[in-house]
Design goal:
This protein has 159 residues and is α+β, with helices and mostly antiparallel strands. The chain has one domain: Peptide Deformylase (Alpha-Beta Complex).
Length: 159
Amino acid sequence: MIREIRLLGDPDLYSASALVQKEELSELDGLQQDLHDTMMEFRRIYHAGRAIAAPQIGIAKRVIYMNTGEPVLFINPILEFPDDCKMDVMDDCMSFPGLYVMVERYKRCIVQYRNIRWEECRMELEGDLSELIQHEYDHLDGILATMRAKDNKSFFMRK
């Protein structure tokens, strides 16, 4: 089901999300489908969108859905950074379409998470995918890209 995406300024976007408990796993099939449907509708309208976090549709759980060709559901992800190498990126968000924010992100990261079968998984990401998972992970902690702007001149509107 397509859900309403919470927009910049919505108080729910600024709250930390709760861990998913194993007993809640059966509820995640519906959540995964809602995240998928919502992201695909956003893609249809804006021609953008590779991942979405559960808080963006009002579900305060530590869940991220990413689809860059192969769908992945990250349950209770934890990020690690293997080095200090960073990059500047123009970050955009489904919660503020049309606005870009210059932020600094780690170039590489390791994400540990549980999948839909509650199995422990690990993924190493680099470049734009590393930036993407860091952006979505921030949503789980109530942090928006606007809060990570490099400075007060780091905001740009899409033409």
